[in-house]
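4.2 Preliminary Data

To establish feasibility before requesting continued support, the project team ran the inverse folding procedure on a target of 207 residues. The structure was first converted into the token representation described in Section 3, and no sequence information of any kind was made available to the design step. The complete token record follows.
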């Protein structure tokens, strides 16, 4: 009897998940659907026909550009959007993050962040809690990106609403000790190095 109830429960959950997914797909704009399918040919046609490359994603959390700055080191869709009218600071996430904040916080490295800066991203933009892209890069211990952002004008002396600088964020970075394969990948891709990031930012904030 219990097994029948469990099977019915799983079926209901699966049905509900499929229903929610179908609503999400239906809510997507034609441009969002094309980009989700990596169909840049159709996407370019849609933009030329008037679709806004700076539109909000159907989930409501920021812009299309923010979505494609989140999950990959150098997502080609992010570069496609930047090449076709997307502006880095047009829309923000629910937390107040710009595309540069998101790129710095997650998997993107110097190449995409440089492209965002070249497209006009505010290098010292603040989230709702006062964090800058430099702080989030420090929290991810992306040594090369931290150095690049400071070279491009990021202010290491800025503080968030709790009084923390990028140095404090670096102190709280995850050392990835329990994820050796991911750590190796991050070291190769973004120069992940917690100890050197801390040392570098300590020097920059002790003036």
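Position-by-position output of the design step:
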């Amino acid at each position: 009897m219990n097994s029948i109830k469990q099977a019915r429960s799983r079926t209901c959950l699966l049905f509900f998940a499929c229903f929610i997914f179908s609503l999400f797909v239906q809510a997507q704009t034609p441009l969002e659907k094309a980009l989700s399918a990596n169909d840049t040919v159709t996407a370019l046609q849609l933009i030329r026909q008037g679709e806004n490359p700076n539109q909000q994603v159907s989930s409501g959390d920021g812009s299309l550009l923010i979505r494609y700055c989140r999950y990959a080191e150098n997502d080609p869709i992010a570069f496609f959007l930047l090449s076709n009218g997307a502006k880095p600071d047009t829309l923000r996430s629910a937390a107040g993050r710009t595309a540069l904040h998101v790129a710095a916080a997650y998997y993107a490295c110097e190449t995409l962040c440089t492209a965002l800066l070249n497209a006009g991203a505010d290098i010292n933009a603040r989230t709702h809690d006062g964090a800058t892209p430099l702080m989030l890069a420090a929290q991810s211990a992306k040594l090369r990106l931290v150095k690049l952002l400071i070279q491009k004008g990021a202010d290491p002396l800025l503080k968030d609403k709790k009084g923390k600088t990028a140095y404090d964020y670096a102190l709280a970075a995850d050392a990835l000790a329990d994820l050796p394969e991911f750590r190796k990948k991050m070291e190769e891709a973004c120069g992940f190095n917690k100890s050197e990031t801390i040392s570098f930012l300590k020097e920059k904030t002790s003036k």
